[in-house]
Amino acid sequence: MRYASWISELKESFLGEILKTASYEDVISFAGGLPAQELFPKDDLKDCFNQVFEEDGFMALQYAEALGYDPLRAWILEQINAGSKTKTLEDIIITTGSQQGLSLVAQIFIDPSDVILVESPTYLGALQAFQSYKPTILMVPSDQDGIIPEDLEEILKKQNPKFLYVIPNYQNPTGRIMSLQRRKDLVEIAAKYNLVIVEDNPYGLLRYEDEAYPNLMDLYDNVIYLGSFSKILSPGLRVGYVIAKKEIINQLARAKEGMDLFSNSLAQRAVFKYVTCKSINEHIAKLRKAYTARRDVMLSSFEKYIGDWAKINRPKGGLFVWVKIEKIKDSKEFLEQWAQKEKVIFVPGTFFYVDGRISNEMRINFSCSSPEVIEEGVKRIAQALSKVK
Amino acid sequence: MRYASWISELKESFLGEILKTASYEDVISFAGGLPAQELFPKDDLKDCFNQVFEEDGFMALQYAEALGYDPLRAWILEQINAGSKTKTLEDIIITTGSQQGLSLVAQIFIDPSDVILVESPTYLGALQAFQSYKPTILMVPSDQDGIIPEDLEEILKKQNPKFLYVIPNYQNPTGRIMSLQRRKDLVEIAAKYNLVIVEDNPYGLLRYEDEAYPNLMDLYDNVIYLGSFSKILSPGLRVGYVIAKKEIINQLARAKEGMDLFSNSLAQRAVFKYVTCKSINEHIAKLRKAYTARRDVMLSSFEKYIGDWAKINRPKGGLFVWVKIEKIKDSKEFLEQWAQKEKVIFVPGTFFYVDGRISNEMRINFSCSSPEVIEEGVKRIAQALSKVK
C-alpha cells in the first residue's frame, strides 16, 4: 500500500497494545487514564436520554450543525464566564471528545515542518493527534511547576511556533499543576512573542487540594481552550468542546464539517439535561472524594512497599501519579521484562517524550482501581522490582 | 492568525450557509441530504438506549477501543458476507459517521499533491474531507451510468492516483446508479493498474426499483468500503463503518485514535440492539415506500410546473434528483437572484465539480419534505424561473 508518509514513519502503537493487555484476566492495569466506571451516574444519564427522546427525539436524531447544540454551548460558557473574560456563543464549538479538539486544532494550524511546542513530558494522545500533520515538535524544559519560562523564551527567540500545547492542571502524565506565578510568567512571554497557547483542561475539576488557579484563557487573549465531559461525567458520550476567538471557532467548524459533520446529538442533549436537571456538582464532589482516597492509598502503598526505590509526586488533582524508580534505567524494559510477568501494567515514561528518550519514569493511574486493587498492584510492582538484578 | 495553508485556500463555506437558510421560516429546502425526520424509529431507539443502560450501562459509558463495538462489527459483516467475498472481524472499523471514514481514508493515504480521482460531479462532503490533506483532485468524465472506463484508463496511463472515490449506488448528487457492466469494466481497469477504489455506499439500501447490483467490494479485492446507519436509521447517532483489508483497518484505527479515540459507545450499542431486536428490514421497507412516493411527486411536479425547461433524471433510489435547466446558465446565480426570493433552495451544481465550473444543474432532495411541500417547492422554482429574463 502506498500510504501517506506519516504512516510509514509511525512507531509501534504502544498505547493500543497496552489497552488490550488491560483487559486480560488477573492483570492490574494502572496504564489507562480511565475514570472509575462504577461511579458513572448511569441511572441519571439514562433518565436524561429518556427525556431527550421524549422531548425532542426527532430533532436529536437528525443532522445538525457542526458547532453543536446551542443550549449546551451556552451552559458551558456560563460556567466559564465565571472567569474574568466574557465569551459569547460564537466562541465555542462542541467536539467529539476533546481528542477531536486536538485533532481539529492541529488540522487548521499545522503545515508539514511547522514548529509546535509541548511540555516535557506531555500527553501521548496529543502527539498522536498532531503526528499526521507532520509538525516539528519541540519540548520546552519543565520542572514540578510546569514549563520553565526562561527556557520558553530562549526557544521563542529562535523559533516561530504555531502554538504551545499545555495542560496546566494535574498534567498528563506528571499530575503536576502549573503554579500561579508560572501562569503569569507564561502569558507575559506569550504576549511578547504573540504565541498562541492551546490550553487543555480535562482534569481541572478533579481538584483534591487547594483553590483553583485561573485558566490561562482568563489571563491572555490568544488561548485556544479545550474542555471535556469525559472525566467528570463519561468518556463514552464523546462530548468535549473548544473555546477560542470567533474567527478560530469558524475555522474549526469548517474543519469539523469535513472530519465528522457534527457530534452525536443525543449525547450533547443528554449532557445538557444532566448538567441542568441533575446534580453535577454533587457528582463531582463524589468523584473528588473517591479519587482522593485512591490517590492516598496509592501514595501510602508506594511508601510501604517500595519506599526509597521510588521518587513519587503528590498530585493535587487528576488521575495520575508520576513515579521515578532509581533502581531501574528503563521503565519500558522493566514493564516488558518484569512487571507484566507479575501481572501489573503502567505506561513507561518514554512514550511521553517526543524524542523517545530512555526513561526510568512511569505514569500510574489511580482513578479506576479500588483501594484494595491499588495496594495489590503496588505490591506486584514491588515484587517485580525485587527481581531486577 | 497563521493558519495551515489549506485554510487560506478555502472557498466560502456554502454548504454551511445553505443549511442555515434551511431553518428560516417559510423556506422550502431541497438543499440538504436529510432523511425524513418524522420517520425515525424514535420509540424503538429509545427502547434500545434503555436496554443498553440496563444491560451494560457502565461499560457503555467507559473508554473503548478505536475499532468499535465487536457485536455491531460482527453483525455488519454478517450482512455484507451475503456477498461473495468473506470478511472477518479484523476487516472492519466503526467510524463517527461515514464522513469520518472519508476523513480517515484521506489522512492515511494523502500526502500534499498526491493525485486522487473522483466522479464528475461528486459528493461535496468528500471534497471537504479530502481538502485539508491538499491532494490534486482529478475528475473522471462520467455519464448516466457512472464514470466512463475508457476515460479512466486514459488518466491511469498518465497518473498514479492514491485512490478513486466513487458512489456506485444512487450517487450524490446525480442520483444515478453505476450499471453492472460499468462495475465490471471499472474493476477490470482498476486491477490492471492496481488502483485502490474507495466505495461509498450510504444509499444502497434505499432502492426503489430493480434488483441490487453487487458492490465493487464483491468484485475486487482492493476496495475500501464505507457504510453508514445515517440514511437507514438516524444521522444523529453518528455511526458509520469502513470495511477493508486488515492492514488498512489497522492504519485507520491508529489514525482514529488520534482523531477522536473511539466513537460514541452508547450509540454503537443501541444500533446493535436495534438491528438485532427491532425490525430493521420493515423500517427500511417503510422508508422505501415513503421515499418512492416523494420521488414520484417530485418528478410529476417538475413535469407539471416546469416541463420542457427542465431535464431531470429518474433516480432508482437514494435521496436526490439532478436537474438541468436549459433556460438558465448558472444555477448558483439563479438560486441567489431568484429562487431564494421565492423561498425555495437547493444546491447549485457548481459545488459538486472540483473545478467549480459554472453549471445550470441543481441537486434537489426529495426525502425530507412531504408530498405537499414538494409540489409547493417545485411551483416556487417554476415561479422563479418564469421571472428569469
Overall description:
The structure is a homodimer of 389-residue chains. Chain A is of the alpha/beta class and 389 residues long. Chain A contains 13 helices and 15 strands. Chain A has helices at residues 5-8, 14-22, 42-61, 70-80, 97-109, 124-131, 149-158, 180-193, 246-259, 265-277, 280-306, 331-339, 371-387, and strands at 28-29, 92-95, 115-119, 136-140, 142-143, 146-147, 164-166, 197-200, 223-228, 240-243, 310-312, 320-325, 344-345, 347-348, 361-365. A 7-stranded mixed sheet of chain A has the order 2-10-9-8-7-3-4, sandwiched between helices. A 4-stranded antiparallel sheet of chain A has the order 11-12-15-14. The first copy, chain A, has a two-stranded parallel sheet with strand order 1-13. In chain A, a hairpin with a 2-residue loop joins strand 5 (142-143) and strand 6. The longest helix of chain A has 27 residues, at 280-306. The mean pLDDT of chain A is 95. Chains A and B meet through helix 2, helix 3, helix 5, helix 6 and helix 9 of A and helix 2, helix 3, helix 5, helix 6 and helix 10 of B.
**Share in helix of chain A:** 40-55%
The tally of beta strands of chain A, per DSSP, is 15
Q: If you average the pLDDT of chain A, what whole number results? A: 95
Poorly predicted tracts of residues of chain A: none
Rg of chain A to the nearest angstrom?
21 Å
- Helix and strand pattern of chain A: HHEHHEHEHEEEHEHEEEHHHEEHEEEH
Which sheet architecture does the biggest sheet of chain A show?
7 strands, mixed
The helix/strand class of chain A is alpha/beta
- Residue share in β-strands of chain A: 5-15%
Strand order of the largest sheet of chain A: 2-10-9-8-7-3-4
Form type of chain A: globular
Task: Figure out the total of helices of chain A.
Answer: 13
Distance between the termini of chain A: 44 Å
Hey, which two chains have the biggest interface? A-B, 82 and 82 residues
Give the oligomer, counting copies of the same chain as homo and different chains as hetero: homodimer
